[in-house]
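Q: Can I see a sequence and its folded structure?
A: Here is a first one.
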Amino acid sequence: MTLNIEYLKDIIRKNMELFISIRRDLNRLAELSYEEFKTQKYITERLSEWGIENFPIAKTGVIGIINRSDECIGIRSDMDAILVEGQPRHCCGHDFHMAVVLGTAKVLVDMGFEGCVKFIFQPAEEGPGGAKRVIQEGGLENPKVTKLLGFHVWPGVDVGTIEVSSGAIMASVDDFEIEFIGKGGHAAMPEVTKNPIYPATDFIQSANNIFCAFSNKLLPFHVSFSSISSGQTFNVISERCKIRGTARTFDSSMQQFIYKNIKKLAKLSAQKYDCHVNINYYFQYPPLINSHQATEEFLDVAKKLLGPENVKKAIPSFTAEDFAFYCQKVPSVYFRLGIKEKGKGENPLHSPYFNASEDSIFYGIFLLAGYLFAIQKS
């Protein structure tokens, strides 16, 4: 089927009232990771209403399929809200993501799209990483996903504009807890204690010196110490001091470099002050790496649909996304969708003041549906 761009735009415009109402419905249903039961039910009902095959996955997720075949292109939307000021709220824009992907599904059905598409509504992106569970439960198989699209609404980017680049676009994230164990006692008699704060602060300084020395613009990384805790009062030297932090990079080899040096330096600091140390290092998400070939194809279509001036190069962000796990399995493209318009879309993600222009829904659907029509084999 040859793509008629104006006809596609017209179909989306005629349905925009529905798509906006879907976004608002989902916003009111905001649920935390693996608690998205009402959201799951809502998505299931919409897909069924439009005659789209669907089934649950990963506890609270949903998969929809049109024109089932052996192979397909996938589109992923996350589903979960975050806790903001004590309440589950969609301050990361996942309500917009779901509305765009649901809207894309309806438009493809209404326009008689003939290719096979799998819509992956994935729970728990905010943690503990629902993408891994979707993969483990066969979400990329039957039909086999040969290419996957994902996106995130992005503050500061104008409506009608996207940002995308091949290669690493979001960072890996690893967390660590390091506990130094000394010998507690009275603060008036430090000579008979082994104060665990000393190796802890020595470790932080040593790590900072090493990582600053190895700072590399070609392989950028961050190691941040976010918490240090020991004792609760003035005159007691605690037996334990715990440090927490996070490490982020765009390169898997740099992940290993950071991990090995954190272990090495923590042990040296403990030894220096005759203390013990427990090291827990958690490899969370890998870097999100867009496929070069798939991204170049996507860029070519996006420029024709949106205009080359509205397709910007994405600067890699040190934030992380579990979409990275899909990228390890299939050629994938992850882009940023502009939401800034008329005073909206300026506050950061996860802010209680986050908002976005609902006009961005139109462009998200237009781009996804237009891309699928453009690459569909005749």
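Q: Show me another, different protein.
A: A second, unrelated one:
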Amino acid sequence: MKNRYSIWRLMSLGAALMTAPWLQAQDVLVTLEAEKGIITLPAKVKPVDGSTVEGISGGKYVGDNDPGSSIVFNDIEVPEAGTYEFKTYYMSMQNRSIAVKVNNYSEYISTVSNTTPGWDVPPTNEMSTYIYMDKGKNTIKITPMGSGGPNMDKFEIITTDVELPKPGEFPIVLEAETAQLFGNLKVKPTDGSSVAGLSGGKYIGDFDLAANSYLRFNNVEIPEAGTYELKVYSMGSSRALTIKVNHYQKSIIRTKDSPNWDNAPTSMVSTLIYLDKGTNTLTFGLHEDNGPNIDKFEICTTTEEIDKPEVEKIAYSYDFTDEAEISSTQENSTLSLLTDNDEYTYYVPETSNVEIVAKCQQPVLLTGFLLSAGIDSEIDVDTWKLYASANGSTWKEISYDKVTDLDGAHLYEITRYPGTAAADAAQYYKLAATHENLEIAEWQLFGLPYVASGDKNFPTDLTENIDVHSNVSAYPIGESGDNFSEEFYNLFDRNMNTKYYAHEATSFYVEIDLEKPYTIESYALTNAHDYPDRDPRKWILNAYNEELGWVELDRQTDTYFPTRYSTLKYNVNSSTGFTKVMLDVEANNGAKDIQLLKFQIFGKEFNGAGINAAQDKTLSIIADQGKIIISQTEGKPVNYTVYNLSGTVIEQGTTDVSYREIVLNAGAYIVSANDGSKNKIEKLIVK
């Protein structure tokens, strides 16, 4: 026993230890009993009554590893500088993570991949990460990640064949199994075995889009800001990954096919990323499909350069404070920055406590809210209070069911039900915030409008007096059966109890004939109460004008609803009158089915002014019943190609002089046409 740590040595520390030729991979050099470390509260040695637990090393463990806790071991000796496996024996009924910091190097993350039957009784499970240690004495600090860590029995430092560069040297190797894992991601093989040919013998798998799976590396230390090459080593089919560095906008990389999913060899692709000087956070997510299995990442130096990316905002583009009247007990010129959907601007009250009231345009059934004190703020926004009121004088504190740390903001979710919606809806919301040197970067309110009128609760819009059975068409129609209907008509009934649902469909379109022209000011989509993976994620809003034909008014490519029962509203502000509107949803959030609660359009009857000059009509492409028609008024032949939305060529050819009817099945198509003097591309819906 030395320094209170149980150290197993293969031989005495002498001259032979200087080179340690006898060390083999998987030799346990040091065993650290968790209860023997220097423990910072709220963590504590358990059982607290002084008894012991049979089956636990030493009969003790460290529990209550809540935020602020730490376990420190000093003077941990290893014979050579280099990479070692750091194995943790734990008990945890949840997938929790710890950070392992060696000396002054960046933290390494170790994540529970297999939970245990209980928190306080054996058996324990094992999880590992790789750490770089200096020759001789080292200090190791273990801290919980997020809301807390597992209960910990002991740690082992083990020799390994994995070779990490010394911190600060390149390439920087990020073993996928040492990342912080979210969604369904897990370290594989799950039985604890190793895979020959893979770095560290492990990889991560179950990269599921529907579960919003992603992995994150925190505190990646970089000596200088600039461009670096990122290499991704993966297995399985070619898949797209999103790469988010710190708070910059995401980029996308597509992996290459490898011979199989679970064994070497891996494939490698690389891209350029921008990293800041000092610590960086790298987050890898999914783009439109499930992901590959991943072995490791490498960060390398490069002589190439890319521009520093734009910052990507956390705040959502719309919430109910956007249209609300905002007042405060401390009003000043910065108050408007509180609700500008930008967490990089700040409302700075003049005192350490403040109350802000949002009077919404109409009552809102609140299903969530976002709070930010700023990207790098240490203020605990969880201590702030939110209240609701129907009249602005009698207030009730709001409780939430779930909070998500967005790394710069907290998103709070509230479960709501139609049966209690009328009682829960409120027009006034009040935020009470307290902190010395108080700053508030963003406050957002999410939910759906609740204007009770019989069985309707959404506000009126342009579809109010439309006969949806004759003026609206859609594909797929939706599901129906005995005593239920989830067809597209439900999108327009203004009732939160009904929704549109299409089985085994990931896209849909709905077209509305407004009968007379309207200017379109805005539109809104409201998602359903369940299955986030069925939400629309990518869509286009098109509108039809007699002179202009179909015009794209808005496009959303990567949208996520903040909560269940959440309305997102988008301003269009067209000056042109349109007689038809079409919502074309191209992709959902990963499920095999798709659904939407409501689709609303807001605007005014067109007064005849503001039509732009009509576009050149010498070459036209239009959709008709069961066909597409291509025509050229000057008698020129037209070369054309028809694609489906996946990019597959359906038909191509040349018109007979200047006209061609192309018979097609119902669906969405992209048509490219060229008459020798101009090229035209249209996306059309064939009914």
